[in-house]
UniProtKB/TrEMBL annotation:
GO terms for cellular component: extracellular space. Its cofactor is Zn(2+). Gene3D superfamilies: Zn peptidases (3.40.630.10). GO terms for biological process: proteolysis. One of its GO terms (molecular function) is zinc ion binding. This is Peptidase_M14 domain-containing protein.
Amino acid sequence: MKVRKLQNLIERNEIYPRGANNITRTAKQHDTLLESFFARLKDDPILDEKADESGILDDILILIQIFRYMRMILKRKKKKKSIELYNKVKKESLRKVSKLNVKYPFGDYGSYNDMLKYMRTIEFYYPHITKLVRIGKTHEGAPIEGLKIGYPIRDINKRAFWIDANIHAREWASSHTALYFINQVCIIL
């Protein structure tokens, strides 16, 4: 479940009616929706170490953001039962997540092919917001590829900004900065 969908679900259920008779009913609906959400999250293939052999860091970070957001909402509402359920699912989910094998090491310098593979993997997991584009070739004939991010992805009438990285050989950190930025933008969208 994407962060925006989760936020909409929570925000929709945060609006409690003013009447005293409806408060209990709405609180029960809220608990049921939370339990349903956590049940779906628990069975999500992202958390299954066998389902995701690529081990994309994005999915793990989305999960962590969801947990942070849910914790904030639950603390604000002071719902003890929901917080206990949250803690149980978080503990079990993070145990599974810790077993995932992340393939792109942000701390190490990867080859150009590793970077392209990572961008292709991002495009595979987020086809509705990302598209790999070929913008030319190097003087050696290697493809120069970039990643277009946006929604809807085919809309060319919107304003855009360009982030350039990996231009000069000695600017090795710029490529990792751009990949990390891509990673973070995909999480937000």
